[in-house]
Fold this sequence. Notes:
Order of helices and strands: HHHHEHEEHEEHEHEHEHEEHEE
Shape: elongated
Helix content: 40-55%
Strand order of the largest sheet: 2-1-3-4-5-11
Distance between the termini: 82 Å
Strand content: 15-25%
Amino acid sequence: MVTIKDVAKRAGVSYSTVSRALNGIGNGSEGRREKIVRIAEEMGYVPNQAAINLKLSRSYVIGLYFSTISKMTSPFVLHDVLTGVYSVVGSRYNVVVKGIDMHEAGTLNPCCYDGIIVLSQRNEDQAFMDEVMEKKIPMVVICRTVYVDAPNVTTDEAGAMEKAMDYLLENGHRKICVIEGAPNLDSTRLRHRGWQTSIRKHGLDPEEIPVVGGTYRYASGYQGAKLLLQHEPTAILCFNDEMAFGAREAIAEAGLRVPEDVSLIGFDNWDLSGYNSMRLTTVERSMSDIAKEGTRVLLKRLEDGVVDNSRTFLENRLIVRDTVRDLRSR
Length: 330
């Protein structure tokens, strides 16, 4: 393999002169630089990218850390976030995906990452974020509102779930049940606060609303709905779309129809048409858009030196489709 020293020997110049010429730096004559570049091309010289990265103190790797991958992160979240990140970084960076719950404290190596994106879902992630900042690795936190000296991209999940419950109540529903998510996640706590705010706003008692906990997975939506159908609800509010589609299966097994017998609302606006053809009314929270914005902020820091530790809130919209029946005409 041809090395930079071989090129220097052929050109009759020093190793450092060849390095400066090939990298377009220094004050040497243009003619000499062109000669060195031509010789390197004729010899088939290929730069050692790993050595270049080490010289520049760049790894061209971005770490993408989830609170957890195996236990609570929906595959739809994982897919959308990865798609969003790669749509921004393209081929400029490699992306390494890991779970914070599998991280051994104190082992984070700043040489491995140019920057880190943290998709945080739990308070327990704070220790990891503190370590990232202590190691002075540029970081952006997405999905969850955090109070750290780093940029933060998220949405108003409490307000979004308030809108979803408002929609059910405004359509005349009073016998409403709720399938919530894993209790240790911030998303669950925020969405819980949102629907309770709506209930109180309409003069009702949240304690009278039947609630079951889920895991944000299809099976927990199915099991939760089976339990809640004994209350004969006219509507079930689910904390994500995947559980809503699971609830749809339980409703069908009970010989009931959506929305004629039981209305459904989800959250996230995933494309779950593979489960069935139900056109689900849901809250749109685009994890892809959140990931894209977080990645843009991080790259501004890495490539342009722009340090902006502000908090960015992206909009959530209620997407009205076919799964909520209007009971006001009854």
